[in-house]
Amino acid sequence: MQLRYGFRLYPNGPQRSALARAFGCVRVAFNDALRVREDARTAGLPFVTSAELSKRLTAAKRTPERAWLAEVSSVILQQSLRDLATAYRNFFDGLNGRRPKTGPPRFKSKRDTRQAIRFTANAGWKITPGGKLRLPKVGDVPVKWSRTLPSTPSTVTVIKDSAGRYFASFVVETGPEEVLTPVTPEVGIDLGLGHFAVLSDGTKIDSPRFLRRAEKQLKKAQRSLSRKDQGSNNRNKARIKVARAHARVTDARREFHHQLSTKLIRENQAIAVEDLAVRGLARTRLAKSVHDAGWSQFVTMLEYKASRYGRTFMRIGRFEPTSQICSACGIKDGPKPLHVRTWTCNECGTVLDRDINAAVNVAKTAGLAVTACGARVRPGPVPAQREETGTHPEPHPTTV
Prior knowledge:
The chain is of the alpha+beta class. It has ten helices and 16 strands. A five-stranded antiparallel beta sheet has the order 2-7-8-1-6. The chain has a five-stranded mixed beta sheet with strand order 11-10-9-12-13, with helices on both faces.
């Protein structure tokens, strides 16, 4: 499978200028191609092919108005045309029902806080013996290597985020040599807000609430930004401070998801989760807490890591009544409000923890071999059957 490895870049002043020039040229090439297709659609002409757009881009470099496009690598300009073709393909597939609906391609702006360019293998980029990333017409950019790449990368994408940081994203191929040794445990996971995850074995993982903990600093930085004049340098500096504060929250949340998902994948052979309606929950009064938890990112990590390391990953339907079924006897006991965290089964009398019971039911619905012992808080009193109520000693003969 293909994976992306991201590393922090630290370009100097001239290299930042060269990257800014490359970002601008890629943006112009993308917008010019999009304009050609939009004009053809408005005029009722046939759809302009990617080959025709490539020819027009080559011809534009020879004109005085677009001669500066030759100052950057031609590979990144061609990749921008491929990105446009991908955007159109996704848009048409969404209309045909082959994928979730997306909007049509839009024009890029120089005020977009995120910029990216992509170099393929024929661009001539390489990693120098000194550990720097050599980019054509940019130079040798220092890289903060946090780990080694498992194989030779095929492409590299240079990204500038809204906080002004630069990253290099490498695409590498991984083989079956990363498959882990099979283990016995299988686990179901119930995701929530009070606890980030509750496992079917009774383990509860607290929610870090990164956004809630950083709200005071974010509010202070945002208030400072609102006082700055529009278009001033001080406002741009304040905007970067706000972006960096949000980036710290995002990085901390992603690191937590990576560590937890890797731990679960290594310790369990099979993992089952519930397919949550995150988009619907994000429109409720719990929207901030739902976004702060980041369930979708965590489940996506579990899915691709299970495929990478040879584990089994399963999703169950979001309409499964996991919180209404007793994991001990299987009786459906009806819906319960959110403030009810423990409940007693009316059939078997077991006192159940709501979250652990739901995690056990998630695992059982997925067909995993788990027991319901973790869901029980304490054994409740079991009502005696009618024929067992009271004592009925056998009559003994009396002697006079």
